[in-house]
Write a structure and sequence with these properties.
single chain, 78 residues, mainly alpha, 4 helices, elongated
Length: 78
């Protein structure tokens, strides 16, 4: 049985990569996973989605007014 205070090298590298790609610290990433049930995989997926959105925005690829209206109509006005 290993030490209770260590995590695998793979997890540690994934946390480091996620921290480098986001504004989150290692501690916040681990806290979110433990306290709020946000798995490392879900946090990685969220950051990847944000990165994709930023790339789209930088290239001028935004939703049209009609697409925005369709989403608002589907889910209701916020």
């Amino acid at each position: 049985m290993g030490s209770q205070n260590s995590i695998s090298e793979d997890l540690s590298r994934r946390i480091d990569r996620l921290a480098a790609r986001s504004t989150l610290t290692r501690e916040r990433i681990i806290e979110d996973a433990l306290s709020h049930g946000r798995s490392l995989a879900s946090q990685e997926k969220w950051v990847a989605g944000v990165e994709e959105g930023l790339i789209d925005a930088d290239s001028g690829d935004f939703a049209s007014p009609e697409e925005v209206a369709a989403v608002l109509n589907k889910y209701g006005q916020i």
